[in-house]
Write a structure and sequence with these properties.
Elements: H1 9-18, H2 26-35, H3 38-45, E1 49-51, E2 56-57, H4 63-102, H5 117-133, H6 137-145, H7 155-158, H8 164-173, H9 179-187, H10 196-211, H11 248-262, H12 268-278
Antiparallel strand pairs: 1-2
Helix pairs in contact: 4-8, 4-9, 4-10, 4-11, 4-12, 5-8, 8-10
Length: 301
């Protein structure tokens, strides 16, 4: 049975010092612990601990280094979130345009177009909740004007307010016979429908981490993108092995690839390299970065 009581900030500082973390300024540490919870910061000092049971730190472990990691991760999250936004909007636009023309403005409610109807039902339930919560004028006006129409608003309205996760699920769940599924993959330069769904689902999971202010640094990620053997656009020569897909690097590569399609001349590579320059003590390997990643065709400015 769990029996630990809540501890004060001073007690937290005493405990960290007793375990070997160097804290030269208690007031500074108290400020951070008052604004960033102990267990949120724990994700950044975890690798600094020599013993994960007693939680004792390795020699010369510093509180300042913990804060540097935290700040790096925050900046990284903001950068990645901005990149994902561009990919999300490009996907949303293509889904709405191509499927509405090929099928109908209500294609996303047509069960005959999807592989797994049960999964579609879950996705539509989430969309319905989003529509009910929506304060957007174009949604409220549509529901008011067409209250006798039991369908959702058409795709160009409904899918403007749904999440990236729902969009990626809708795309991945489309039957392979739907021409737009391959067309969208081709427009993203990912050959066909075999690869893009796994990329989008992995990116959607990272987007959720960013949206909820979760940790990206030294994080085991759940998504496993399927990689093309010969991508039509610049890619990486030093490809991580599948067991390394839990690291952020391969996901960053997928994002960079898609971003180069929807936003040519983007500054993602420059911004990422600048971030590592700003925080020189950050271990790039904790993100799965390959030693020569800056020289890869994908990442060249």
């Amino acid at each position: 049975m769990y029996s630990k009581n809540a501890t004060s900030i001073n007690e937290q500082i005493d405990q960290l010092i007793a375990r070997g973390l160097e804290i030269p300024d208690r007031a500074v540490a108290a400020h951070y612990l008052a604004n960033i919870s102990y267990y949120r910061l724990a994700g950044y000092w975890w690798p600094m601990q020599a013993d994960k049971v007693s939680h004792t730190f390795k020699p010369s472990s510093q509180f300042d280094a913990v804060i540097a990691l935290y700040n790096f991760d925050r900046d990284l999250r903001l950068l990645v979130f901005d990149v994902i936004e561009r990919i999300e909007i490009a996907l949303r636009t293509r889904l709405i345009y191509h499927l509405s023309h090929e099928c109908s403005p209500w294609w996303f409610q047509d069960t005959s177009l999807f592989i797994n109807v049960r999964e579609l039902t879950k996705t539509l339930a989430s969309l319905e909740e989003e529509l009910e919560r929506s304060k957007d004028v174009f949604i409220k006006e549509h529901l008011k004007k067409h209250k006798d129409d039991m369908r959702f608003p058409p795709a160009w309205k409904s899918l403007e307010i749904t999440s990236f996760g729902s969009l990626s699920k809708l795309y991945g769940n489309l039957k392979h016979t739907i021409k737009s599924k391959d067309l969208i993959a081709q427009e993203f330069q990912t050959a066909n429908h075999t690869y893009l769904p796994s990329w989008l689902q992995a990116i959607a999971q990272i987007r959720n981490i960013c949206a909820h202010h979760g940790r990206l640094w030294n994080k085991n990620l759940p998504g496993t993108p399927k990689l093309m053997s010969k991508p039509p656009k610049p890619w990486i020569a030093d490809v991580p092995t599948e067991h390394e897909f839990k690291n952020l690097y391969i996901h960053l590569c997928c994002m960079r690839y898609l971003l180069n399609v929807v936003n040519p001349g983007n500054s993602f590579s420059i911004s990422l390299q600048s971030l590592f320059t700003k925080y020189p003590t950050v271990d790039e390997m904790a993100l799965g970065m390959k030693s020569g990643w800056r020289n890869e065709d994908l990442w060249r400015v």
